[in-house]
Amino acid sequence: MGFDQDMVADIRQFNRFYTDILGLIDQDILDSGFSLTEARILYELSLAGEATANQIASQLRLDKSYMSRMVAGFVRAGLVTRRVSDQDNRALLLELTEKGKKTMAELSERSNLQVKTLLAPLKEEERQELKASMQTIQGLLKQSTERVQLRRFENTPLEGAFILQKQLEIYERENGFISDVWKTFLSDSVTEMLKNYKPERERVWLLEVDGVLSGCIAIVQAAEETAQLRFFFVDSGLRGFGAGELLISSALLYCREKQYRSVFLWTCADLKAARHLYAKHGFVITESHENQDWGVPAIEERWELKL
Question: Which of 33, 65, 84, 89 has a 20 to 30 A CA-CA distance from 150?
């Protein structure tokens, strides 16, 4: 894609720095007993007044079954009520109770106080400069992500070569996977998927940015009611901008449409960004073991999601 590597490194460094800053801001929420995701759901409900669980899940790009479990917890805690919609009796509208509104106000005040503490050492002109810079970043990256789209998979040799070669490149550069065992395993896996591809039960999504292939995810049928998520990767220059979220959300929606009852995947413990997405969408680790065959020691993990 022609990204300047120094620029990519600078952006990733800024992402790590800003993540640390957010961690400081969010610490009071974590200390309150609520997860960050739970706090975001309560916040979105406070803004909307009323909304369905699906609407909130879509807004926050959350797995729907995961969202359902959290809503059930809110109802048990007396924070949220559910009622049948007047316009559609199949839809349940969520609304904060008085207790929920009070809780949300307390969480909001915690976050506001942390932000004020963070900004306190800055002069007024520095605060305005910071605000303008954030608006610039948001505007530029919004334009960038709007150019990201999913492309129809046609199972061509060029597409297969991209899926294989890009993964070999990424895993060698970022994880040190260079052994012949690893290369053969990955090559055989991609070849097998393309050869036995069943479009009625399987799907591959290719991510494009300005017409350039930049990522992938695949759903492969492992058993009658079980799917496997495979070949999930995004060009390093796009990470942190929602590209991975777009891919995994599309894949899980497809699994539900095809009425799979569960989906699993294999990953490595040091793939932090991917593992964060898996956990966000409700996957849990069910197995792990050490692998010495890829060129460097790696902890392989199996993650599963009940749909």
Answer: 65
CATH architecture of 148-306: 3-Layer(aba) Sandwich (3.40)
Fill in the amino acid letter for 105: A
Residue 196 has what DSSP assignment? Answer: T
Starting at the edge strand found earlier in the chain, the sheet holding 226-234 runs 148-151, 203-209, 212-223, 226-234, 262-268, 298-306, 284-291
Q: What is the DSSP letter of 291?
A: E
The CATH number that domain 5-121 falls under is 1.10.10.10
The domain locations on the chain are 5-121, 148-306
In eight-state DSSP terms, residue 160 is H
Contact 239/1 with Cβ under 8 angstroms? no
Domains 5-121 and 148-306 share a fold: no
Strand order through the sheet with 51-52: 51-52, 92-96, 80-84
Picking from 213, 227, 216, the residue whose alpha carbon sits closest to that of residue 186 is 216
Strands (E), the chain: 51-52, 80-84, 92-96, 148-151, 203-209, 212-223, 226-234, 262-268, 284-291, 298-306
**Distances from the Cα of 257 to the Cα of 148, 193, 243, 252, 286, angstroms:** 23, 21, 21, 9, 24
Residue 147: the pLDDT is 67
Does the pTM exceed 0.85?
Answer: no
Angle at 151 between CA 141 and CA 273, to 5 degrees: 50
User: Which residues does 213 contact at the CB level (< 8 Å), separation at least 6?
Assistant: 151, 159, 162, 166, 206, 207
pLDDT (tens digit, 9 = 90+) per residue, 122-181?
A: 999 999 999 889 888 876 776 555 567 888 888 888 899 999 999 999 999 989 999 999
| Closest to 251 in 3D by CA, of 197, 170, 305, 186 | 305
CB-based contact 242:145 (threshold 8 Å): yes
